[in-house]
Design a protein that fits this description.
Blueprint lengths: L5 E3 L7 H20 L5 E3 H9 L9 E5 L4 H11 L2 E5 L3 E6 L2 E7 H4 L8 E5 L2 E5 L2 H15 L7 H17 L9 H6 L6 E4 L5 E6 L5 H10 L2 H4 L9 H9 L6 E8 L4 E8 L4 H9 L10 E7 L8 H15 L4 E4 L3 E2 L3 H9 L3 E8 L2 E9 L4
Parallel strand pairs: 1-7, 2-8, 3-6, 13-14
Antiparallel strand pairs: 2-3, 4-5, 5-6, 7-8, 9-10, 10-11, 11-12, 12-13, 14-17, 15-17, 16-17
Helix pairs in contact: 2-5, 2-6, 5-6, 8-10
This protein binds coenzyme A.
């Protein structure tokens, strides 16, 4: 084992207030470790922050690694000092104070095969061993590989996977990859993102995948009549959900879903690169030359009990980013928006869509709206 450089912990992550309290709690734990001659190794998000100093990450808890044989010694002192702890069956000892958590992971269980050329992390007057940058990259690679299987079946797993992946990219100092539809086919999580609704619920926005058929069917079947009246790009049935999930083709139509932590689909956005002849003709009248398979049209819908919860805004904002990355110039609406749908008109205008013209179709009066992106 070799300890060479000192890395000084400086600056603050995004969740500064909690972080400041967490570091104070951590220093107390380090004092206890010192008293009983235990020398844990810092890894996880604190180590990522120490190496990258990136202000956009959250540090919600502190992870340490130590031989599991030391757990009883730590527990004895915690009991004497009356500090709350929890022994988890996944070989982790958690020390808790209100919303703060410092976790000792079993080195035998979680840190085998990681390099042991540690660094020293300096936190004010405290020093603690820290996994080397190469070791940390390896630790994140293992964690990502272990999680990938579960990310499509469980939104919580998907959110954790995204967080890990973000930190891994920071460690590797990777530039955001150039996004293409082909790359999305290989790795749909390339365009996945995590968000928080008005009511505090965490949600995941990602492409629809084959395994979503059942959840997607329940979502479509659950839409109420007043919503169905405004959204009708295809039939809204379980059968159609199955059919769509079995024939996904991201090169032609990218279908994205918003999923809550109960694994329910609560929003659906179509981003279609297939434009109808009728759309192209109408746009010629507006003097806009749409390009087949290069420009795109959208159709969003949110589950009735989630409407007005910001869910639609999250989907649209992310879809615009995706469209921008895919070098789309004109983003138009599937078949316009009904003139009476004042909420949707406000919603599109909020994101920069502008009205082009009006047309009648199947007995409704509709408005074409377009967002012009800064792409050629
Ligand atoms: C349109 C839709 C996708 C928007 O999603 P959402 O989650 O409800 O929307 P958000 O909460 O993100 O935003 C709604 C905005 O409309 C505003 N709004 C609500 N009711 C409104 C109304 N009657 N008139 C004008 N604005 C209204 C809200 O205040 C909010 O604006 P703000 O962000 O400036 O405060 C969703 O309501 C929906 O699925 N509607 C039914 C299907 C539909 O109309 N699809 C569009 C077809 S073109």
């Amino acid at each position: 084992m070799r300890i060479d450089k000192n890395i000084i912990l400086r600056g603050f992550p995004r969740n500064k207030d909690k972080y400041v309290r967490l570091i104070e709690f951590f220093k107390e734990i380090l004092d206890i470790c010192g008293e009983i001659d235990i020398h844990p190794v810092v890894d996880g998000s604190l180590a990522v922050f120490a190496y990258t100093r990136n202000k956009n990450i959250d540090i919600n808890d502190i992870d340490l690694s130590i031989s599991e044989t030391k757990f009883p010694k730590i527990i004895r002192v915690l009991k004497i000092k009356g500090i709350k702890y929890r022994s988890r069956d996944f070989h982790v000892l958690e020390i808790i104070r209100n919303d703060l958590k410092v976790s000792f992971g079993s080195a035998e269980q979680w840190s085998t095969n990681l390099p042991t050329d540690y660094q020293t992390l300096q936190i004010d007057n405290h020093q603690v061993k820290m996994l080397s940058l190469a070791g940390l990259v390896k630790q994140y690679e293992h964690a990502l590989n272990n999680r990938i299987e579960k990310v499509y079946g469980d939104a919580c797993e998907g959110i954790k996977y995204l967080e890990l992946r973000g930190k891994y990219k920071l460690l590797k100092m990777e530039k955001p990859p150039l996004i293409t539809r082909q790359k999305i086919i290989i790795d749909p999580f390339l365009i996945a993102s995590e968000h928080i609704l008005k009511n505090g619920d965490r949600v995941l926005f990602r492409p629809l995948v084959k395994n979503d058929a059942i959840a997607f069917g329940s979502f479509l079947e659950g839409l109420k009549e007043e919503t169905r009246d405004k959204f009708g790009p295809h039939s809204l049935t379980t059968k159609e959900a199955k059919n769509i999930c079995n024939t996904l083709n991201y090169l032609e139509v990218l279908r994205l879903v918003l999923i809550n932590t109960n694994q329910e689909i609560i929003g659906y956005m179509i981003l279609s690169f297939l434009l109808r002849e009728s759309q192209v003709l109408r746009y010629q009248i507006y003097k806009i030359q749409l390009r087949q398979k290069r420009d795109a049209c959208i159709a969003p819908v949110i589950a009735d009990n989630y409407q007005n919860s910001r869910a639609g805004s999250i989907m649209l904002e992310e879809t615009i980013k995706i469209a921008h990355n895919l070098k789309i110039k004109y983003l138009i609406l599937w078949q316009g928006v009904q003139q009476t749908n004042t909420r949707a008109i406000h919603y599109y205008e909020k994101f920069g869509f502008r009205k082009n013209g009006e047309f009648d179709r199947y007995g409704t009066h509709n408005i074409d709206m377009t967002l012009t992106l800064n792409n050629h």
